[in-house]
Amino acid sequence: MTQTGTQVTSTLLNAHEAEVLQQWMQRLKEDGALHSGRIREGELQTQCSQFLRLLRDALNGGTTDIEAPGFAPVRDLLADISASRATQGFSPRETTLFIFSLKQPLFDVFSRHAGTDQTTTLQANWSIGLLLDRLGLYAMEAYQRTREELIVRQQQEIAELSTPVIKLWDGILALPLIGTLDSQRTQVVMENLLESIVQQSAGIAIIDITGVPTVDTLTAQHLLKTVAAARLMGADCIISGIRPQIAQTMVHLGVELDVISKATLADAFALALARNGRAVTKRRTDAGASHGQQG
Fold first, then answer.
1. 216 occurs within a structural domain
2. Which residues, in sequence order, are bridge partners of residue 176?
3. Coil, helix or strand for 237?
4. pLDDT 10s digits, 68-88
5. 153 and 182 in one domain?
6. Which domain holds residue 239?
């Protein structure tokens, strides 16, 4: 990439920025940039205008290295636009199209106004083409980073929502688990359970694994860690919901939970009530009581 190409690119963009902006906006509209309804035409034009202005200022510094200090404002703007679009649900194609759709308008303007020197025109087009390719990749990386952060945050929120601690009775809590129990989720489960044990002054916690698809050695270890943490807080644990298939798998793997287990949550709750000196009995109806008195 020669210095001559960079200088020509800078000169042409300074002289014909308004023309480039008009053609760029037209190109974006034709490519469906406004069809999703996520961005209005005025906002899109503002972004395009800001980008061209910052790009022009950066090129006036005599370099097309996007890592150069002079390109910092361009990088910052692209990062903001990409992050905003990732948050709003734009696709990767829609995000990179913002940059790559600028190529054709620049090429057209350069071809019309660069003069008769074909070599200089070619150098200018080559220079700006490579520059926009790098900026497009930079925008895609910024978009991907934001998407990954969103996914991680959503996974954390889902994990917290999928591990509710329910008060069944005074001193008795239930923790229904649904889905795979991995290391990260175990930490969330443990924190929620321990916090609830303290808040509710609970002495018994029922961990129901009816919704856990499989229990392997690693899952059993995670359960034991949760049970051990609860015991340190002064609460006994009962595991419920062990289905026949899971029981067979655990026996086959030689997994020992070392904790009282029940087949159903109802059985575990009955045991917890009995430990607290309570029991569930069937209430006699008035009709049944009257019939007994008449007999």
1. yes
2. 208
3. strand
4. 999 999 999 999 999 999 998
5. no
6. 166-275
